[in-house]
Batch of 2 targets.
Target 1
Amino acid sequence: MNILVCISKTPDTTAKIAFTEGNTKFDENGVQWIINPYDEWYSLVRAIEIKEKDPTTNIHLITVGGPEAEPIIRKALALGGDEAIRVNINSNDSYVIAQQIAAIAKQGAYDLIMTGKETIDYNSACIGSMLSAILDLPYVSLANHLEVNGNTATIQREIEGGEETNEVILPMIISCQKGMAEQRIPNMRGIMAARTKPLKVVEPVATNAHTSIKEFSLPPAKTGVKLIAPDQMEELVKLLKEEAKVI
Amino acid sequence: MVLIYIDHSEKEIKKSSHEAISYGAAIAKQLSCSAEALLLGTVNDDLTALGKLGASKVHQLNNESLNNFDAKVHASLIATAAKNLNAEVIVFAHNINGKAIAPAVAVKLDAGIVTGACSLPDLQNGFEVTKTVFSGKAFANIKIETPKKVIAINQNSFGIQNHELSATVVEMSLPIPPASVKVTNVNKIIGEIPLTEANLVVSGGRGLKGPENWGILLDLAKALGAATACSRPVSDSDWRPHHEHVGQTGIQIAPNLYIAIGISGAIQHLAGVNRSKTIVVINKDPEAPFFKAADYGVVGDAFEVVPALTAAISKMKHNE
């Protein structure tokens, strides 16, 4: 089986969120970069587990970004990808990114294309769905369980207030979230092996962005907490009812 | 025309779609055009009543097989309907199914898309929509550069507006593509309020010391009619099920009221809940960072404060 795992580079979950150039650019100063946690912990690790069960599985990684994305993709290779492709373009437009991934996906006979449920920076949750439209493939999102048997995938996906089990004939696209797998730490052997695993750089296909970011802003700071004494819970209820008007 | 996709489950239209209709109606007013809704499948709701939310028409593809959600089939039908009806803006709720199909519809229509929108479009310099980014820690104004636009609106960010309309129901007929997904089992937790749809949420952290102590939190949630949630360490320790984990790597929620009990307020947790309208923090540590993000705070022992709060809520409800 051939799996394509989409890897995105995001700021660390504790990164300070600030903007520069008249609030039009994310301030990367001092930011630690990580693999988007949903891509790494759930999508990539599940792909590795599938390979551990069936060693004939090939795991290809794809990232869309400049050379600065390479440490991230090397880490993903150290965790267990077989080879990686970097499409050499930086874009904030989901459509441009999906077009680059689709162009690569068309060249390989992938049975499964896996993404995280969203990135933790732009939270757009677009790539999997866009790939399904471009490649005309089935798509199941927010999956927390995946088993593959022959050419059939059995997937559990989140629904409001529960879960649903889906069966899909491969090839397909799946977006992964918590429950799918557990976070792993790359071991020394993996890190050494990753140095020599193929990382191919390809130039982007031409495509027009559909959107552009005009300005970032930060939410207004809370005006300050109103403290209520622990023995004044009726007062708190009154405030929630009459001042905040939420109950 | 603004076309709003209506999502439903178990023959009932989702609350997030009610909000999406009101949001779409407000955009239609800005653009001086009509707001019309699109329903794939069948529901028990009175469709003419969607006029009260702002839809003048409801286009329905009346076919039971569409009650099972299939992202590929649904996206394809929505895109075809949007083309046939010449829709300029297509609105979705940014809920579970909306996330699965809105971007695919955008691709099929050559439309730019903003997901996680939290404002009406600003039409002064083209078509700009504000969305939440960095897991709710910031906002971005996104300009959609294409003639057609797709917007997925964050749940509980616009609200519902009342209109004096009665919607006309129009039956639509489209060839239905073969199913790509077979739904073999649905497992809904009965009697529990889905977190992403909840107005009120009560959440617990490691400060509650162990799963055996969750009773006080469940009692409070019951008295309020609230959904329950937890922090990441709690779900990682299997004190509570994974689907209750809210935070940057769990579920992001924006209820009207979020009550955090024994949660210190790490930045990753705040990212999942900071869009809540009102935050109450109960923690015995006055230095807990969560107090900085809270509207109301109680510095005290949860095992005393929470039962007292439950009693005060019950008393208030009793007097109503």
Target 2
Amino acid sequence: MAFTVTINGKKTSIDVDPETPLLWVLRDDLKLTGTKFGCGAALCGACTVHLDGEAVRSCQIQARDVDGRDVTTIEGVTGEASATPVAKAVQAAWIKLDVAQCGYCQPGQIMSAVGLLTQIPKPTDDDIDKAMDGNVCRCATYHRIRAAIHEAAKTI
Amino acid sequence: MSRQRTYSAVAMSVVAAIVAVLSIGGVGQSLFSEHDGTLISTAKAAEKNSSVADASQLFSPVAAVLRHPRCMNCHPRDDRPRQGDDRHPHLQNIVRGEDEMGFVNGRCTACHRDENSQHSGVPGAPTWHLAPLSMGWQGLGDAELCATLIDKEKNGGKDIAALVEHMTKDPLVLWGWTPGGDRTPVTPPHPQFVKELTAWADAGAPCPATAK
Amino acid sequence: MTYTDLPNKLTGIFAMPVPKPPDESRRSFLKISGGVGAGLVLGLAAPLPKLGPTGAQATSGALAPNPFLRVAADNTVTVIIKHLDKGQGAATGLATLVAEELDADHAQIKTEFAPADPIKYKNFAFGVQGVGGSTGLANSYEQYRTAGATARAMLIAAAARTWNVKADDITVKAGVVSHSSGKSATFGELANKAAGESVPDKPTLKDPKDFVFIGKSFPRVDSPAKVNGTALYTIDHQFDGMLIATIARPPMFGAKVKSFDASAAESIKGVVKVLPVPQGIAILATNTWAAIKAQRAIKVDWEKSGAETRGSAELVAEYKALLDSPGTKAREEGNLEDAFKAAVKIVEADFEFPYLAHAPMEPMDCVVRYDGSSADICTGSQMQTLDHATACKVLGLKPEAVNLHTVWAGGSFGRRAIADSHYVREACDIAKAYGKAVPIKVIWTREDDIKGGWYRPLYVHRIKAGLDKDGTIVAWLHRIVGQSIGAGTPFEALLVKDGIDSTSVEGANNLPYAIANIRVDLHTTKGGVPVLWWRSVGSTHTAHATEHMIDMLAKEAGKDPVAFRLAMLKDKPRHAGVLKLAAEKAGWGQPVKPGKFRGVAVHESFASFVANVADVSLRDDGSVKVERVVCAIDCGLAVNPDVVAAQMEGGIGYGLGAGLKGAITLAGGEVEQGNFDGYDVLRISEMPRVEVHIVPSAEPPTGVGEPGTPVVTPAVANALLSGTGVRTTVLPMNKQRYKSQS
């Protein structure tokens, strides 16, 4: 079935089985591999993208759910044209503090951090604990994720 | 098995109660229609009805359903939804947020869609969300639970008819009977619950006396 | 021994200390440097099927005097990373070493993973190419510095020749070669000329006092790509015509396919082929979703007669029964029997440690392209030589016909360092069985990963210790029961000596405390659950048992846990050093806020010394919240202090997640967990504040990837012992609820 979805600001036509998770549409069909597969069950956050501006688990969103809607991925928040000031601040803070270790979860972490800082520009530790708990990092870079969110908040 | 036996025993007493209510004809009806949803009036109703049915008997099958993990998990008395039959706090530090739909990034619908996911096991139903804090039920005894349920100040302004409607037709409530995956469905079957619920409602939604 | 026999037998040593690269091997790589170009230019993003000889041109105009770096005309310096980087910072660490001796600018450094080559890129600790045991930086320290110094000397020689000046008057700083006359040139401008200079035999290495990066700061080379989503992991590789493979795997360890019905799977759109392979039933599909759906749709009747059928409870009971009889001796000093008789107080505790899954964020995966006469393998390969040799063997190809491309790995924690190379083997098995020359990407689901075995083994310990009237430990009996990680693997000869797998007892048989009468023994059990090293290996359990026991004894003796330890560490200055540093920084001895408890632990692993002081509180439900961990580490010279700190922070989080919540359990031989719901891992709301303090040192660098992991759990348990009086002998901690005594 064909669907039209705006991906990172660009109207895109996809023709897939309607129940295909958005995660695999992005990765397999659109070659946007920054969004990661970690659990397939909304338990790890590696596949976090924004759907109409709100963080969602792309492994649980089906192709039919996104028809006519806006999807932003890590490639979108990185793109010169599509990056928001919040996304730029988040990524700069991540680099400044060398947050990443294996890095596999970090696109999801960044999408969640952008989501958080967009809605709460000066989050408390408690806000971070609530808004970021869905994103697992097995390298346990949490200490620096927290610091980087505060760092980004300073510059927004 | 023992649970089933308990339920059938309860069901039998409910049948008896229904018969009792029917036998006094319009009294129950008028009480029902006049019901203003407050605890006091219900207590009065229950008082009036005491000759025909033991209020606690009518409400207890309803309470048993409300206490089922499938119902109770989304009616916490704090900000954390629960999961599983052991009702552990929802993983990922999920909290209710300002609109009962979750906090930033942890919105209910970020993961819970309109139906159960066949593949991942993530449960789903339309408008997945928490009951308001005022409708927190965890740890309540039958009397308090009943009082909370029918209190319009707490239940979102629902009269008894609306409550029955909610528990009879709301897809999110109905999900409890078809939760999918390895989740235990609410028992007894929904039609039987509706009968029990209706019996209680028809009797004027009497609440049991406050805890012994 | 032929190359493909390598997986059956490893040479070299696996244990620390890490030998320095012998001069002989350094010369040998320099000698063959002329032909090295072709092997070096393996662009990660290049299409897999086209890889191979075509890369040679890219080196034209470049200075590539050895297999470890390439200075190109565009002024980039590409450091060739011989080890997998799975987050521990190998790429940054090795790049730091080259950049230091080359006097390069951070901005011009790029990295590239080395191809498989057991000679050029061997780990001196193993004798083959691979990384593990926190050996990555230690075994490369001189090698990569020398590589940088070599190129630097050649750039200077080229500048001297071009400018007709003396080499001695030339300086190099931040990627610029300058002469006192004012002449200067970039590396890129000199690269082509420098390539014509002779390769110095023994370039001079810097005096450590002149270091600009080592011991100071060198930001991670991989941060930008990992932050913008462009870093390519195995799972991200996509090629035209590629098929995705999943495998329906046995539900019990040792179960085999009896029969299967693929009709439902085959009817799924996108499924191309269903193939029986030794690992189960493989499904090949044109897209990942179809491959995942088909894996679930396939109906397999499993032959379970040869499978492990015991559950965790039965295993624990069997193991515990062994605690009463002496095991194989790993260490014995003094006369234990007499010492126990003379002791005035005896403290005894039995400990239980569950199986643990590594659960790296990127589940196992491997890409293979095989055309009958050559193959490319692309994966986060941690043991390149084993993986490469395994591929050669399965595919029946000569080593030169198989290109192994190592790529970023989304974590490992030991999981990718696998003796039987199964994630490469199965990909080759599938490619061979399919027989068509298309790239195939095998992916594991999270459930495959959690249920798939290769766990930290289940262990049971008993420690019995005696105190004399002064509260000094005079007797120590430590008995360990559990599976061997090394037995039956190519690592057996390295790890198992006289019936003792060193990974079963490490951290216990080298107990640092001065105790006159001591015995450590081991019962090695057999079972069908495949086991593996899990970040910090034996120390994951021995550190907890020993360090928690020490606090139980300190309590019985009425002594302060830090002072109690220090009194027994008079001959162990590095243990004592980190212990004192952590205690001081944490404010040990000062009163703790009401409702908070403080505990300490110290442990050596992988030649590094770590002490943790943990501040702990209880939630309303009696579960444990760790608020702060102060960590001190002595890892010799800290090449990259920020990476060291990151590894401590991460190691603490990884260890704490397991200590608080981690357990893989079996019932009737089947794993009860399947994803991050059942196998719950540490999340940000549970991460303590971590403060890392590095002991200044000029000793050779030692490992940091693992030593941060095992110390936090005993430190937390000791805090709980002090605040609640409860011993934490059964892990994970969420099995019990604690109640404050105050």
